[in-house]
Design brief:
The chain is of the alpha+beta class. The protein is 52% helix and 20% strand. Helix 6 runs antiparallel to helix 8.
Length: 333
């Protein structure tokens, strides 16, 4: 009916009180339009509120899903980190196993057979020879002095080669017999190590004794081969250099070798005259401190490339024939 409020309409929500509805009923018909507008406004506000609520709920849902996704991502990232760590550890273990195998092979070829048998299954001993491992050692370098002239005096290259291979083969056995480590041949010379942990408390004396015997070995082989040469050179023979300090084992071109300052200076002092054993200052100090009664030293100098003349010590054992070496602790059962 015109001018009257339609009571069949949807009940007014909380925005209007009962008193307000009564006032509307008492108002004239021309007030109905205003009331309807006010109700529509209230409904729009409610709709907007519900829209905002739904929008907020949707945002909460999306944030929740995002959080779940982030949690899953974190879990995946954690798994990936764990997997990467497992791979790293596996590779490290594989590298360590290869390192031990290389160390075994190096020692098998470089030390006395009885020493190798005692060491081959002992990780603590093998670790000293892994690539990157460092240790204190006497380093012995043996060099054939006058080798070029000696080669020219040989009646044939094959006869010279026979002399060198025979002498150096015997010297290699000498190094191993003295509980040294035969590092490598260096053309017409030899590099050997006498580490404290491996060669024992008399490592320095072993290096000195080995150098002395190596010179004697070459002199004997050369004397027996005299008929292989046009003339026999009186100054041809083994010179020896010894230094002491830290050496590091490295794998170079698939082979393990020692590097370090003592290696450099031992090789330089290997240019000593025939039958002379030159000690660098570090080797001299350690030998004098450990074995003052067994070693005799003569101070002298030698020319070193890029350094000029340096002080060296020509060494010999006072009673080489009667010398007895202490065994290293790992050798004794």
């Amino acid at each position: 009916m015109p001018g009257r409020l339609d009571m069949s309409a949807k009940p007014v929500r909380d925005a209007y009180s009962i008193d307000r509805l009564r006032e509307l009923l008492r108002e004239p018909a021309n007030a109905t339009a205003a009331a309807s507008e006010e109700i529509s406004k209230s409904l729009r506000q409610e709709i907007e509120l519900e829209r905002r609520i739904l929008s907020a709920q949707e945002r909460v849902r999306l944030l929740h899903e995002t959080r779940l996704g982030l949690d899953a991502t974190k879990r995946d990232a954690k798994k990936q980190r764990q997997f990467a760590e497992e791979i790293r550890l596996a590779k490290a273990e594989e590298e360590r196993a290869f390192g031990f195998e290389h160390a075994r092979q190096f020692l098998k070829e470089s030390v006395l057979g009885a020493a190798f048998d005692r060491m081959k299954d002992d990780p603590a001993r093998l670790e000293q020879f892994l690539a990157g491992a460092s240790q204190q050692a006497f380093v012995l370098s043996l060099d054939l002095r006058g080798s070029t002239a000696l080669m020219l005096k040989a009646k044939s290259p094959a006869l010279f080669a026979k002399l060198v291979t025979t002498a150096l083969g015997a010297i290699e056995r000498c190094v191993k017999h003295h509980l040294g480590i035969f590092d490598k041949f260096s053309g017409d010379g030899v590099l050997a190590l006498f580490p404290d942990d491996f060669s024992g408390p008399d490592a320095g004396l072993r290096a000195l004794s080995c150098a002395r015997e190596a010179a004697a070995i070459f002199n004997a082989v050369y004397g027996e081969s005299a008929s292989s040469f046009i003339t026999v050179l009186a100054d041809a023979g083994m010179g020896a250099g010894i230094d002491f300090g830290e050496v590091t084992m490295l794998r170079v071109c698939g082979a393990i070798t020692a590097l370090g300052t003592p290696v450099v200076y031992a090789c330089r002092l290997g240019g000593a005259p025939k039958d002379c054993i030159y000690l660098n200052q570090g080797a001299r100090d350690v030998l004098v401190a450990r074995h003052p009664a067994e070693v005799e030293l003569e101070k002298t100098t030698m020319e070193v490339k890029h350094e000029g003349r340096i002080v060296v010590y020509n060494a010999r054992l006072k009673s080489a024939e009667a010398l007895k070496f202490a065994l290293p602790t790992w050798w004794v059962p």
